[in-house]
Amino acid sequence: MFKNRIVLLIVVALLGVAGFYFYTHQQPAGQNVVDGSDQQTITDLAGHRVTLKKKIERIILLRSKDIYELAPLLGDELPQKVIAWGPDLKTDDEEAFEKFTQKYPSLKNLPLTGSVYTDALSVEQLITLAPDLVIADKFLIERGYKYVAKLEASGLPVVYLDGSNDPLTGSQKGIGLLGKLLGKEQKANEIVSYVNDQLNKVVTRLKTIKEPVPSVYLEQGVTGPTKFGATYGSIGNPKVYTSWGMVLHQLRVKNIADGVVAKQEPINPEYVLTVNPDIIVITGQNWTTTAGSMRLGYYATPAESEALLQRYTQRPGWANLKAVKTKRVYSVFHNTAIISCFAAVQALAKDIYPQAFADLTPEQNLREFYRRFMPIAYSGTWMVSLH
């Protein structure tokens, strides 16, 4: 009898554990599940179920440019919670690095993880840092970096965002997810609401535009005028777009790279001359690796940025292009995987359809975003055109 009672108690306990496991692993995607008094389980934007501490104090940014997503949520808590980050903010967007480290000098002393773009990431280093949250992006999986399998097998609390595939929705989803994880849901909702309102000013009006649909060539301005940078298109059926390819698709233009390049790669220079686009866009940032690269950002001036943009028009054969002759050559900030990308989308919409979006004020809206949500002040030049 005594043995039977023990067996019964064991069975009941096992059933309880099984039921608890089923409950914590079968909740609808995107919802928080409390596993215990100090844990939460979520589904990230790569579809992975991740269990983390409910109170997150130690954050690693594998891609330091994702500070744009954390900063509006954490504000002045940012330097206390970020314990390590990747080198890419300094190499790919040096002005942002300077702006954030001016505000929070301790960020300069953060340990650097290896670059996520060169398979230099050390999972062992991440483990020794004992993070509560590791923020990554879904593109790491899609590009097949070698360290991804090791990262996912490490047991680290890795949460994937998806800022690259759809610039019109990805950052809002990421902010919403981080808001849940960090106990900042109200703030996240305010940010997402503002950004969606700004994007809707473009998306809703696109349905009724009667202006002619122009042909557009867009190029990442990282390599400078002497070498063609990547453009964004899609090959295959169904077509899959990323970054600026998705933006151009949503803006309903004739993207000359569509059907010619796969997602992101340089185009044949002769093809640009042959197609003779109505509009040319060179995206800008503050890349430190190439002299003459297109510069926009916190410390760029309109005169300097326009002078850099002008140099692109001096490429062989470009003087005869329609876009150059009519001065329909523009630059907007490159990074589409940031929550403030809405301003670049608005600026581009206004450049492409000037009559339909005559009343749109992208720079003013970006200033307002910084005033309301960012812990650093707005400054610099984020969009420019030839005059």
UniProtKB/TrEMBL annotation:
PROSITE patterns attached to this UniProt entry: FE_B12_PBP
Domain Fe/B12 periplasmic-binding: 58-360
Classification via PANTHER family: MOLYBDATE-BINDING PROTEIN MOLA (PTHR30535:SF34), VITAMIN B12-BINDING PROTEIN (PTHR30535)
Pfam families: Peripla_BP_2
The protein's name in its UniProt record: ABC transporter substrate-binding protein
Alphabetized SUPFAM superfamilies for the sequence: Helical backbone' metal receptor
